[in-house]
Amino acid sequence: MKFSIFIQIYIVKLLFPKYYLLPTSLIYAQAVHETGNFKSAIYKHNKNLFGMKLPRIRQTTANGSERGHATYSSYFNSIYDYFLRQEAFNINFSNTTQYVEKTFSTGYAEDKAYREKWLAHYFGLGISRYLGYIFIPSLLLIAFYFLYDKTLGELWAK
């Protein structure tokens, strides 16, 4: 698991309240699928986690296009652009399967088995799916105290 990508997805998701309850691991699983487990050239050279094309109409954080896909200055920008796309297409959901279905129905991918492949990655993550609900908020809380509460940081160091 690329923990830094997982954390960035969680943080960006917080900037989009509509998607706050969406499991971070579902979006991470989509990135795993789109990047071939973080090995594709588009991922490595374009910093594109979701196989996104350069949009023509909606707001974007992409700074160009190479190899037929959007390029980004950072993975953070790639994740942010993903959520901009989801908002532009008004992807609402009440559960993970519905989110996947609605994303697919907007023409996200041409592969007819895309939904099943995405969900297979999601369910393949196992227990890590639940880390987003328990571990990540706890980690962020601890980091906040270390950064902003010198007393706690000094106590921890002793």
Outline:
This protein is mainly alpha-helical. It is 59% helix and 4% strand. It is built from eight helices and two strands.
Overview of this structure, please?
This protein is mainly α and 158 residues long. It has a single domain, classed as Lysozyme. 59% of the residues lie in helices and 4% in strands. Strands 1-2 form a two-stranded antiparallel ribbon. Helix 2 (24-35) packs across helix 6 (114-124) and helix 5 runs antiparallel to helix 6. The radius of gyration is 17 Å and the shape is globular. The two termini are 32 Å apart.
Strand order of the largest sheet: 1-2
Count of the separate structural domains: 1
| Helix/strand class | mainly alpha
Which geometry do the CA atoms define?
globular
Number of strands: 2
The helical percent reads 55-70%
CATH architecture: Orthogonal Bundle
**Number of helices, counting only DSSP H or I runs of 4 residues or more:** 8
Observed structural traits:
158 residues; mainly alpha; Lysozyme; two-stranded antiparallel ribbon; 2 strands; 4% strand; disordered C terminus
Topology:
Elements: H1 3-14, H2 24-35, H3 41-46, E1 64-66, E2 69-71, H4 75-88, H5 96-105, H6 114-124, H7 128-148, H8 150-157
Antiparallel strand pairs: 1-2
Helix pairs in contact: 1-2, 1-4, 2-6, 5-6
